[in-house]
Design a protein that fits this description.
Layout (H helix, E strand, L loop, with lengths): L5 H18 L2 E9 L4 E8 L7 H16 L5 E4 L2
Parallel strand pairs: 2-3
Antiparallel strand pairs: 1-2
Length: about 80
């Protein structure tokens, strides 16, 4: 069985999070996924852009889920 490319795996995890984010009027966009460094860059959009809880969404939601689901992920960075 062939392992999916890193970016495809990251997108699949983000797709799992989308319903939660969209329920509050937000979303997440993958900006970059660097498999060699284990680095993922994402952008929160919609209502998540300026929400006071966006830091928790990033650390407890997006980052935690990516690191749990994909052990190769070492760093999740929010970009504007």
């Amino acid at each position: 069985m062939t392992q999916l490319p890193f970016e495809t795996q990251v997108r699949a995890v983000l797709d799992e999070l989308r319903p939660m984010l969209r329920a509050d009027g937000g979303d997440v966009e993958l900006v970059a996924a660097d498999a060699a460094r284990g680095r993922v860059e994402v952008r929160l959009t919609g209502a998540c852009t300026h929400c006071s809880a966006s830091m928790q969404t990033m650390s407890l939601g997006v980052e935690a889920r990516l690191k749990h689901s994909l052990p190769a992920v070492r760093e999740v960075v929010r970009v504007c």
